[in-house]
Amino acid sequence: MSNKMNNTELETNSLFPEDQEMGFTLYNLEDVLSANREVTAKPQRNDFYQVAWVSSGNGITVVDGKNYHYGPNTVFIVQPGQVMYISHDEGTHGTAICFNEGFLVDDTHKENLLLKYGILDAAYAQPYYQLDGKAAPVIRDLIEDLRTECGQPPSAFGHRRALQYLFQLILIIVQRTIPNYSWQTMDITNPNHALFIRFRHLLEEHFKEGWKVWQYAKQLGVSEKMLSNAVRVTVGLTPAAIVKDRSITEAKRLLQYSDSSISTIALTLGGMDQSNFNNFFRTVTGETPNEYRKRMK
User: Fold this and answer.
1) Any idea what DSSP says for residue 6?
2) Residue 255: what are its φ and ψ, rounded to 5°?
3) Which of 5, 94, 196, 263 gives the lowest tally of CB atoms within 10 Å of its CB?
4) Is the separation of the CB atoms in 8 and 258 below 8 Å?
């Protein structure tokens, strides 16, 4: 099937209910794939997090233009903003967990679970994990516990906390199974980590406006030097490199999955003219936007 959409904007995945006060819901994968094939088979942008556990069956999921062949005992983690669709499905069974960032906030400790689990960080995580024989049955049992808890009324004692704890256990098991895991665990009490996360959140809000590093620093109430040091200590990169990478990622999504003209995409990403955008894109990727679009079509 063609990766190209017949509209000028990326459609938003509609599977996560907007009126979900908990910010968390659970689906059977087989139900989603059979009843919403017109939704799952075309590229759509997620505006929520999605963790999908495949217990049986196989297929191909495309995330940001890359094909991932999946089978039993695999986990997909798709971030907000990423574009995905199912290009092939053969008897897939499993569970999809959809949640927003509000669900991840621990009210007791004022923590955000995004600070704890590197696999939820879109910049450094991959979307696909194959679990080993020891982890798979543990995940399967935790999924069933989650399903049971979801059946409880929202007013049940500790309902939200139970969902959070069970979900955290799933994330812990998945993260432990990754070979040579080296991501640094974020710590809300570490000033550098906390500043880095605030920077990443602010970046999502303003990267299309073409903000410079000094503008992010000013909005965060710190100096450029302090921001650069926090980012370097936390992830070994400069703020400018992260800003550039975010813009390139968005440019690739729009070039591949929308019919927007290159000049329109350039304006979308910081108000660049087409010439500057061509140079910017080619410098980073080694090909022009038009060459990339033709290759990925």
Assistant:
1) S
2) -65, -40
3) 263
4) yes
